[in-house]
């Protein structure tokens, strides 16, 4: 039955026949979820309850570690049948994870065509359009009529991932035009394809970053986008269901890099030791860096013992400029991520951030100035002025760096999210503390005279 | 021509006829981008260069403020024609922004059917499935044959947002089953729909949160999902192009809330005063809060002047537990966002975070302990032990709060991202400083005896 989230839930089924019926009736993704929750032994049993087609469908939805488990526990014949029937892109993803030996054996068993398809995809680097595309699409030769096209599509639908677009190629397999199933349906059969097909085909190359491909499909509301090689020959398509996943992956990656952590969508559920492995290195590295910031304070212990209110002010200074930096950083990284911002906007944004930064800096400086006045004993009122000025500088630097660093990285064709929040705040603290304490001790020395 | 991002760019066109040709040849979204860049006066001119259909298509892609500008500058007849031809969901979005008076006038001019459609959508609250759905879908009565169905679809394609799914309803308009265009195409015309249509239709209700609808479509790889009312009557569909936008919106909202900022995807490009308005309040509120944290230090100024190394240690303490909190927070919020984590996992995650938190806390405590040893003068070595213990406690609390707070909010059906990074780190600092300094002064007093 449907849970209130609309998902289908299997609750405490003990009767195997009942389970079998249920598992074969469920949508593959739900059956997959159910099986994934079981123990390895139960998984093997449950999976054997699936009838041929359901097994194939469910297998594609299983987590990779479960797929590997099953490949180990099923008979070679079953395994081979499963792998042969997977769509090339999912198969490639699976092969990525399997031990090289197993992959080699499986590849050999595949039909020449399927082997070719998988090899092609595996040939492209992670994160490129070539790696996420599928090689199963509808290709039409030029000069067909609408009727002939529809018949061709009808004839070999089965193994096509989408039939909603058909791509027209010339004799050299070069991509010429695209026609939608919608157009085909609403045109008289004996019209020539070339009369209705659109010559302007938005396409990506095999080495286009997957995120860029996804953004293009989003921009043009495409259900699929063709992938071509350097010679503009059609080699595959990316379908919209992959795009949805890609966009979520990218967003998750941005969020996690900004927070100085990794692990992907499942990070929240990974076991403790994995969590520690994924987070501790970042934290230790950051402490290491932060020693730099803190060491900037060490030499001034004398000053602090004389003006202890500094110990109250410095955290506010650090915390606030840190927040400013994170704000600018997140907004910029996300803007670049969704394609709202391009490196071309650098100047525009720089100008804007400088103005906004100045305004913010002023407001925050005044705030801290007032606070320092309240906290400092009468004879240390002057500290307020220093605090305010350093706050102004630091906040301004924070806003500028938070914007410019990711823009710069993007320009260098690097990942804008490389500069994580923790890293940036650490740098800012180092600078902030140093300026603040140097100015204070300078002031002290001048007063001593 | 195509820019390297695959977008189409118009560069310095001065000849109006050339511009007209270009604008009408471009994909609507690109023409829209070009026009949006122009000055209001130029926009009105450029827009008048578009032929009827292109104008309608382009209008839907224009930013809302530009749409409003145009509605002001065009003749009522043109405006009415544009609005009448918009798809109901886009029209609803536009009406949201327009002054009530204008909306009222436009609604009156609409055909009864179009008015009804828009009114329905506007009737549902922001962020629900009802608000983002379109009322233009293919609906089939039960008992039709495949052939009849295809003919019906052929007859009134024009104003349907997608024809790739057709929804079968009973005499009370209740949703009964769904059939894909693919199925229709690959079945003999005189088969009855009910023989091939799937009874198990994943659906959402008008009041389902848009994010939930998007996650369902992602889960089941749907190109459209039907929206039903309380009586399970079909009232609209959400198409995959909207889902892509919804998922990106949600991710952006999470990122920005985590960073304590707002403004949506375009935040990076908004003018300085807007940026300040969007960010400064958060920052000032945070300083306000942070005064609490800092005030925790104020009473201990005496202690600090005696043991100035504290001023070196405290920033590390605060920075590190802050990072731990942000990591846990981001991972949890994102996990909830993509539906990987549900409130049901609370216990599982709590157990895991406690273990991971302990491990992390231990490692970081040792690290800080060693550092304090290095910085403290011989007679203050004991500070290292206090520092290490407080670090351990604080980091552990940070990891737990960073995970549990968003889970708790989700359980209360609130937005998990409500607890922003800055807010959490401020709380942690307050607690951390207070514990640390109290323990230190306690130790001092004991040694004084």
Question: What is the global morphology of chain A?
Answer: elongated
Q: C-alpha Rg of chain A, in Å?
A: 30 Å
**Structure summary, number of beta strands of chain A:** 6
Spatial order of strands in the largest sheet of chain A: 1-2-3
- Gap between N and C termini of chain A, in Å? 84 Å
Report the biggest beta sheet of chain A as strand number plus sense, adding barrel if it closes: 3 strands, mixed
What does this structure look like?
Chains A, B: One of its GO terms (molecular function) is magnesium ion transmembrane transporter activity. Chains A, B: Belongs to the SLC41A transporter family. Chains A, B: Homodimer. Chains A, B: It holds the Pfam family MgtE_N. 2 copies of one chain form a homodimer. The first copy, chain A, is mostly helical. Chain A is 64% helix and 6% strand. In chain A, the strands form 2 sheets. Chain A has a 3-stranded mixed sheet with strand order 1-2-3. A 3-stranded mixed sheet of chain A has the order 4-5-6. In chain A, strand 4, helix 14 and strand 5 form a beta-alpha-beta unit. The termini of chain A are far apart. The N terminus of chain A is likely disordered. Chains A and B meet through helix 11, helix 12, helix 14, helix 15 and helix 16 of A and helix 11, helix 12, helix 14, helix 15 and helix 16 of B.
């Amino acid at each position: 039955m449907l849970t209130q989230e609309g998902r289908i839930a299997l609750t405490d089924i003990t009767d195997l026949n009942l389970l079998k019926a249920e598992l074969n009736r469920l949508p593959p993704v739900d059956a997959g979820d159910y099986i994934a929750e079981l123990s390895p032994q139960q998984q093997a049993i449950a999976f054997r309850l699936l009838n041929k087609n359901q097994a194939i469908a469910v297998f594609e939805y299983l987590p990779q570690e479960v797929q590997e488990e099953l490949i180990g526990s099923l008979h070679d014949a079953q395994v081979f049948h499963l792998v042969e029937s997977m769509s090339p892109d999912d198969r490639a993803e699976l092969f990525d994870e399997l031990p090289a030996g197993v992959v080699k054996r499986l590849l050999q068993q595949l039909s020449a065509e399927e082997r070719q398809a998988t090899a092609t995809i595996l040939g492209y680097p992670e994160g490129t359009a070539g790696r996420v595309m599928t090689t199963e699409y509808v290709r039409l030769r030029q000069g067909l009529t609408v009727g002939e096209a529809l018949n061709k599509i009808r004839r070999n639908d089965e193994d096509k991932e989408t039939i909603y677009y058909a791509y027209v190629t010339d004799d050299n397999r070069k991509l010429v035009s695209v026609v939608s199933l919608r157009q085909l349906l609403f045109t008289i059969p004996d019209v020539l394809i070339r009369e209705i097909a659109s010559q302007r085909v938005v396409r990506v190359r095999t080495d286009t970053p997957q995120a860029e491909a996804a953004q293009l499909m989003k921009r043009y509301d495409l259900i699929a986008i063709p992938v071509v090689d350097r010679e503009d020959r059609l080699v595959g398509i990316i379908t919209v269901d992959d795009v949805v996943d890609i966009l979520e992956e990218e967003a998750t990656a941005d969020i996690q890099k900004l927070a100085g952590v990794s692990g992907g969508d499942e990070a929240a559920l990974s076991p403790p030791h994995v969590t520690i492995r994924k987070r501790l290195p970042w934290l230790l590295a950051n402490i290491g860096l932060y020693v730099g910031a803190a060491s900037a304070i060490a030499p001034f212990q004398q000053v602090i013992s004389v003006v202890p209110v500094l110990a109250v002010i410095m955290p506010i200074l650090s915390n606030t400029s840190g927040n400013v930096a994170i704000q600018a950083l997140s907004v910029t990284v996300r803007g670049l991520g969704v394609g709202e911002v391009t490196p071309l906007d650098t100047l525009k944004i720089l100008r804007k951030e400088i103005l906004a930064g100045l305004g913010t800096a002023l407001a925050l400086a005044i705030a801290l100035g007032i606070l320092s006045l309240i906290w400092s004993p009468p004879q240390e009122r002057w500290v307020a002025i220093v605090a305010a000025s350093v706050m102004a500088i630091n906040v301004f630097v924070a806003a500028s760096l938070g914007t410019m660093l990711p823009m710069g990285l993007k320009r260098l064709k690097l990942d804008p999210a490389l500069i994580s929040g923790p890293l940036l705040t650490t740098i800012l603290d180092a600078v902030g503390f140093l300026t603040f304490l140097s100015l204070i001790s300078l002031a002290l020395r001048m007063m001593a005279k």
